[in-house]
């Protein structure tokens, strides 16, 4: 006579199998994040660069219509969106905006506003640009290496002798 075993076979996964699957999912997710993060940063930099170029094109169109780039008194970049109040009515009639697409913001991908600095006509030299337009970059700090757009061109002087050569013969001790 055979004795029947009353052991029931349970179907399902063991704890070790579940943990192994979770570890594998974690490794795959980590590999994806490590490989995609640099692409995300590059895409944000490209988006900021495209925004700066697009706004520059809009500024150039504004200049063609009005005869000058928007001043701070005219609202800076806002003059591209809404008609400024001009002292000269003929200039107001030339405004043919808005010069940017509806819904365009002047914020870079990191949430920082673009920096628009029109040249001061009182101090502008012929070789100076009419304006500077740039994004502060990912860190949001103005004037460092991660800025995107027009950077201020400053020549570094390593010594007083170089400064003297550039300044027409001034050297230390020649007062």
Overall description:
With 175 residues, the chain is mostly helical. The protein has a domain at 46-152: Glycoprotein, Type 4 Pilin. 37% of the residues lie in helices and 6% in strands. It has 3 helices and 3 strands. The chain has helices spanning 15-66, 89-94, 160-166, and strands at 115-118, 131-135, 148-149. It has a 3-stranded antiparallel β-sheet with strand order 1-2-3, covered by helices on one side. The radius of gyration is 31 Å and the shape is elongated. The termini are far apart. Mean pLDDT is 79; it is low at 166-171.
The CATH class of the domain at 46-152: Alpha Beta
Radius of gyration: 31 Å
The percent range for strand residues is 5-15%
Number of strands: 3
What order do the helices and strands come in, and which of them pair?
Layout: H1 15-66, H2 89-94, E1 115-118, E2 131-135, E3 148-149, H3 160-166
Antiparallel strand pairs: 1-2, 2-3
């Amino acid at each position: 006579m055979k004795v029947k075993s009353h052991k029931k076979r349970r179907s399902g996964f063991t704890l070790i199998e579940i943990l192994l699957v979770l570890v594998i999912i974690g490794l795959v997710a980590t590999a994806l994040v490590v490989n995609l993060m640099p692409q995300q940063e590059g895409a944000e930099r490209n988006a900021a660069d495209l925004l700066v170029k697009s706004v520059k094109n809009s500024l150039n169109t504004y200049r063609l219509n009005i005869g000058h780039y928007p001043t701070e008194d005219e609202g800076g970049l806002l003059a591209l969106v809404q008609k400024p109040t001009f002292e000269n009515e003929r200039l107001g009639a030339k405004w043919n905006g808005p010069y940017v697409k509806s819904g365009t913001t002047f914020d870079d991908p990191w949430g920082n506003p673009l920096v628009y600095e029109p040249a001061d006509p009182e101090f502008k030299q012929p070789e100076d640009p009419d304006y500077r337009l740039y994004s502060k970059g990912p860190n949001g700090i103005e004037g460092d290496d991660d800025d995107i757009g027009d950077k201020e061109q400053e020549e570094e002087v390593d010594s007083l002798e170089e400064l003297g050569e550039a300044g027409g013969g001034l050297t230390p001790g020649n007062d």
